[in-house]
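User: Show me an example of a complex going from sequences to structure tokens.

Assistant: Sure. Here are the input components:
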Amino acid sequence: MMNVATLQKLLAEQFPDADLSTLGDNPRVGSLAEWDSLGHFNFLLLVEERYSVRFSMDEMTEMKSLEDIAAALNSKGLAD
Amino acid sequence: MNKLKITGTSNLLPRNKAWDVLKKNWSLDFGIYGDWAQVLMNEEDYPAVWVMCLKDLIEIDSVVIENEATISKEIDIRLGPLVYRLENSEATTIVAFLTWAQESVIAGARSQSKRLRVARRIEASLYTLTDRFPSLYVISLDEEFAEKGMDSFLDARNYYLSSCRFSFRGLDCLAHAVGDILHRIAHAAHKVLVLDCDNTLWGGVVGEAGLDGIALGGDGVGRAYADFQRVARFWAKRGIILALLSKNNEQDVWDVFKKHPGMQLKKSDIATSRLNWCPKPNNLLELAEELGLGVDSFIFWDDSPFEREAMSEALPQVRTLKVPDDVNQWPAYLQSLSELATFSVSEEDRKKVEQYRQRAAYVAERKLVTDEESFLRSLEMIPVALPLATETLSRAEQLCMKTNQFNLRTIRYVKADLQKISHSPDYEAFLVQFKDRFGNHGIVGLSIAHVLQDVAFLDTFLLSCRVLGRRLECWMLDHLVERLKKRGCVRLLAEYVPTAKNAFVAAFLPEQGLSPVTEEVLSKAFCFRNALDNSGQCFTCEVASLNINNMELF
């Protein structure tokens, strides 16, 4: 199962200068200053590249949190 | 860190991980999406990348294209900001353009599509601009993306979600292409391609399979090896030095070169080689010394992972290539190496190979002969003095500009200065042309003496590094002295001005019997007081009493 903790490591790669301790319980777009809509888009592309998956346009627009992304990856049968 | 501005007609997804490759050397500034025209025209003096997608630049369907002239007009308007920048800034400008679009095969079967006409024209315009502006570099993304397929580099989903036409891989490819060009602007290409023989130049081991047993030429993989050799020759013609480094009996290898009908490379294409059983890193160090190049100029090609590992381990500065497993990929891979590619190839580059070959032969032979004098004698050296005149001015200028090591005063004369000197009766100037058993080295030396009354001041005395170690400087000084005697000169005044690179010429003047200058001499030669550099060391002698060493060699 893909979980939020694994994705958080990838998040740290995408935002190397951000302070992840301020993320809170439900990390999502807006949880970090850098994690704006462009930052989110870049992060999703990195997830796709790293796990060799492709999200549909609907998935791209609906996923807003690490939990959403983990769920989408699990629905594609991905293990971490 | 230096700033690099990146702007484009498409959104380029600033801070995407794909751009990280450029972040090592540059601080990236993407500006605001959509401001590309302002960025190009704001006259700031740092390098800029303009990513241009034809679809964003021109809405093809809305443009009325009647003839070539109207196409040109549409294009010129849109390239206006680029041309403005080129005319107003000498900073590097890189244009990465994409003109490809999906079209039906039928629509293009009887006539070039409107898009293709515009695309070809815009491409031509960009390359015309590279002729006019040396600061402009062009990347055809159509070509770059073709290798792996447009599908993997472009992404319609990304375009409709965030106006970025590229996929993650597309951005990655773009960033690498830009990085390659910026790297080559700042760093010279590698100079030497070192090749293994067995299973690299041909299939199989010649020592075991014999001349008839190796795969080379014919159909199948032998043809790939032959093609690989052709590509190696292609590089040699562009000034890359080829060297062989192989664990073989030397004679076996040269037999293949001489006798095998499939061979594309000739022995004369190979500048130097080590065909023996010594460890390859040791051999490569010897080659580096022989060619007078740093090991970081070397590219190492070997099919054996073991040899590659040994090389990377021992000499990490050498670029050891991760050779594709499939030999059929080799010709294309070798052809596309950015490490060897340069922006252009000059006539001088083409000659370089021959010069390095001569140098390598010279150094290798010197190793065989222990007694240096008998070695130098065996070279059959023939120096000839040439006048400084119209036809030699360019070479004289080159020598003044490029010679760093054997150069007494390192004065960087340009052509106009040299022309004045050549016309003035107060100067005794000549060039030295030189050949020996290793080849004709061309014009390699320049001597200029300023003569006032009976005193001669050695204004310039230099020798190209190509021919150092042959005592040619002695011949040159002797020749000068003969000329000065004929003019009735009594005293020779010379100066050594130290630089970061000419330390080893420091001893030359005292070795030839010149002694440090005294106040008394200087007072007699007052006319040269102003010419002397305060940082230099002055020497002098009486022309008649000078007895120059090593003249028996010539």
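The lines above are the inputs; the final block is the predicted structure for all two components together. Chain A has one domain: 1-13+31-80.
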